[in-house]
Design a protein that fits this description.
Distance between the termini: 14 Å
CATH topology: Rossmann fold
Largest sheet: 6 strands, mixed
Strand order of the largest sheet: 5-6-4-3-11-12
Number of domains: 1
Radius of gyration: 16 Å
Protein name: Methyltransferase domain-containing protein
CATH class: Alpha Beta
Shape: globular
Mean pLDDT: 75
Structural class: alpha/beta
Pfam families: Methyltransf_22 (PF13383)
Number of helices: 4
Low-confidence stretches: 89-109, 111-118
Number of strands: 12
Order of helices and strands: EEEHEEEEEEEHEHEH
Length: about 180
Amino acid sequence: MQAPVRYTCKTKQDVGNWLICQDEPYTIRPPCLVYSFGINWEFGFDDAMTDLGCEVHLFDPSMKEKDHKRANNSTFHNMGIGSYNTDDTSSTTQLPFIHNTVTLYPQHSYTSSTTQLHFIHNIKVIDVLKMDVETYEWTIIDNMIETDVFKSIRQFDVEYHLFPDYPLAEEYIHIYQVRLSFAAM
């Protein structure tokens, strides 16, 4: 990456299997708002953020769970994040990965700006937005840049996915451009 590093965190805190920055002015403390996209039954990050006193919203349509309040007072939503809004409940996507095939259920997926409006969080700052969405991150980040959503996100944790067969090699130039646009923000 050719973009300069804008900030290097000095105090990283392990929250589940993710890291957050606890340097001022990025310190996460109540009241704090967390969006966590892509759970796959791994609640370590979400529970740790709840333990810090944050309002945590978990999103994952692939788990086929109904919306509910969890025992630790976080809220699970049967919806995902996407680069466009959809309520398509009839289709699934099969992505061939190294050792198995992952089925993604894109129904009830919304852009991050639509999700904020849905939960009336568009006037709030999202302290941490965590995203692990199995290759969809590339188009979602594009949409987030286009819609200027990052201005209301203090910390962004993302797991990038590059597999031998997906995304296609010819898409790498665009992926590189997305990374540069994101780094320059």
